[in-house]
Amino acid sequence: MADRPNTSLADRAYRIRRNAVLMGEVQGQGYIAQALDIADVLSVAYFHAMTYRPEDPDWEGRDRFLLSNGHYAIALYAALIEAGVIPEEELESYGTDDSRLPMSGMAQYTPGMEMSGGSLGIGLSIAVGKCLGLKRKGSPSFVYTLFSDGELDEGSVWEAIMAAAHHKLDNLIAIVDINNMQADGPSTQMMGFEPLVPKLEAFGWYAQRVDGNDIEAVREAFDRARQHPLPQPRMIVADTLMGKGVPFLETRDKSHFIRIEAHEWQLALAALDAGRNA
Amino acid sequence: MKPVFSPPTPGKPRLTTSAMIASIAAEGQATKPAPFGHALVALAEGRPDIVGMTADLSKYTDLHIFAKAYPDRFYQMGMAEQILFGAASGLASEGFTPFATTYAVFASRRAYDFIHQTIAEEDRDVKIVCALPGLTSGYGPSHQAAEDLALFRAMPNMVVVDPCDALDTEQATAAIAAHKGPAYMRLLRGNVPLVLDAYDYRFELGKAKLLREGREVLVIASGILTMRALEAAKLLEADKIGVAVLHCPTIKPLDVATIEAEARRSGRLVVVAENHTEIGGLGEAVARHLMMAGVHPTFRHIALPDAFMAAGALPTLHDRYGISAEAISASIKGWLG
After folding, report:
1. Complex prediction ipTM
2. What is the pTM (predicted TM-score) of this model?
3. Is residue A17 in some structural domain?
4. Domains held by chain A: number
5. Is it true that B32-193 and B206-336 share their CATH fold?
6. Cβ neighbours of A125 in B, within 8 Å
């Protein structure tokens, strides 16, 4: 975060997307559409909201960020590289043997990766425990946790939603990525979770719904989440567009795992550049 | 195995299923109340990192004693085992040492993935302490954790402990607290039999201890089956059958050196006795090691069947499934011919 202090959040988001596409190119695959959809949220989290020290990822005073949806690791690595937590050179090791950047995020592999995700529906539970622990220590740090709309199908998420409200965890800021796509199809068709904001409010949360690709709106939502005066956990429901920033991916037939041809990675980078300069 | 029913016989009373919270101690047996709860309270005084957590079962796991002593270090997570263990991982990641309690069935079966991913894989310092291990409830399969040792043995990073009595439970509680990393301990709660004080014994994590010598038979046992093996050994004295009992309360890591050394002593029938399904517990662990080591004594296994067991009174069930002292001694006599 120390370098490029005057870089705008939009520029940060561009670089996160670019890092992700470069990693996708290394692998020839990856959850790139999800990385593109969540880049704006990660830009605001890492370059506006959170306190941390890139050179000391375990610094006690940091805000914690828990990635529940482990397959979004490509997006988080992209943000951690931009933040200076992971060296840029490591980008090309993504998903290769003995890399610190495995395809699914794991706590013991990567600096700045606070949990092992991938078994969906567990991040919010760990976040509850971390929030309880930070409160025990009298720490002012926040716990941010990102999870996906598909995880709302898991009962464990609702156990954690109840527990966070019951224990009045006002140091918890959860972000759910509503890209409306899970493994078998559109999330809302797999298991209806709407209306989500009233549901969360009924469960005792301070909930906001924003366009997750409108950086200014996301920034304001993070600010409100941090400043909310009541002793309750906070949820940002972020509607996002898979493939955001790369028009030919935004309009491609949607699926959980979007296939990209070998020649398309460079086209994707070019599209990002074009969007940035537009 | 289908349940077998029989109509009541007039004038012939039958044993009734005891309450969930009842003691497993036999009538007149020496006991100690809530050894885990009291041991944890004693430990917590010098260990501010220790916190207690439960999923609506503090009274049924003796954690209420800790909750009363340290109300601000106790977390009630509701009747929800996934959040219990997920949150325990989170607390551990912030430097605390949670003792998380529930019934063995719920930890091993319902919350397995949470323990696997958030505790074992992340190598978090969480102690999982679970009541009603093996066949210690008459409520049927919903509460009979016959397969917990197999499941937790199979989990990398997990230490697995099956104490025998109140003394063992107290000392094992301190030992798993001192151990850095995840641990699963079977819990005997309420008025817990006190047996091992009569022996020159101390619990050491990862160590098996020979409690008594015997020339004809070596019983390798854990948990309450050690207590039963000691009783069976006394019964068999009358028939001039010498039974050695090797207590093996740490199921993982297994003290293979001691087990192998005892099993190598020639001529003895080797019996593994455990309050657990015959699949995947101490018996198979011992058999595998002896086989690999080229030690081939006559080997027998006293364990619960690979079946959903009946509801009923524990003494009835322990007889039926061969883990009462009488049943064990009869089995051994039969094997010796």
Report:
1. 0.95
2. 0.96
3. yes
4. 1
5. yes
6. 82-83, 85-87, 89-90, 114, 118
Is B102 in CB contact (< 8 Å) with chain A? no
Q: Where are the beta strands (DSSP E) in B65-172?
A: 74-76, 97-103, 127-131, 159-161
For tokens 């397959």, name the residue.
A71
Distance CA A130, CA A107 (A): 14
In this prediction, residue A1 has a pLDDT band, given cuts at 50, 70 and 90, of very low
pLDDT given at position A193:
97
- A16 found inside a domain: yes
Q: Do B122 and A160 touch (CB under 8 A)?
A: no
Q: Which residues of B215-235 are buried (b: 16+ CB within 10 A; e: fewer)?
A: ebbbbbbbbbbbbbbbbbbeb
**Is B85 at the interface with chain A, CB within 8 A?**
yes
Predicted local distance difference test score (pLDDT) of residue B1: 66
In a domain, A3, yes or no: no
Mean pLDDT of A121-137: 98
B150, amino acid identity: A
CB-nearest to B94 from A116, A134, A166 is: A134
The whole-number pLDDT of residue B199 equals 97
Q: Are B90 and A131 within 8 A, CB to CB?
A: yes
Domain B206-336 has CATH 3.40.50.2300: no
Chain B interface test: which of A66, A69, A113, A125 (most B C-beta within 10 Å):
A125
Which CATH number goes with the domain that contains A182? Answer: 3.40.50.970
Instruction: Indicate the CATH number for domain B32-193.
Output: 3.40.50.970
pLDDT score at B19: 80
- Give every residue of chain B whose pLDDT is below 70, as ranges: 1
A53 burial level (CB within 10 Å; 0-12, 13-18, 19+): middle
Is B326's Cβ below 8 Å from some Cβ in A? no
Percent above pLDDT 70 for chain B: 100
The pLDDT of A98-113, averaged and rounded, is 96
Domain boundaries along the sequence of chain B: 32-193, 206-336
Comparing C-alpha atoms, which of B94, B33, B81 is closest to residue B53?
A: B81
Instruction: State the Cα–Cα distance between residues B51 and A136, nearest whole angstrom.
Output: 10
Beta carbons of B89 and A125 less than 8 Å apart: yes
State the nearest Cα–Cα gap between B119 and chain A, in angstroms: 10
| Domain hosting residue A252, numbered range | 9-277
Give CA–CA dist A46/A216, Å, rounded.
14
Does a structural domain hold residue A1?
no
Instruction: Say if residues A246 and A237 touch (Cβ distance below 8 Å).
Output: no
- Pairwise CB contact (< 8 Å): A128 & B87: yes
CB within 8 Å: A128 and B78: no
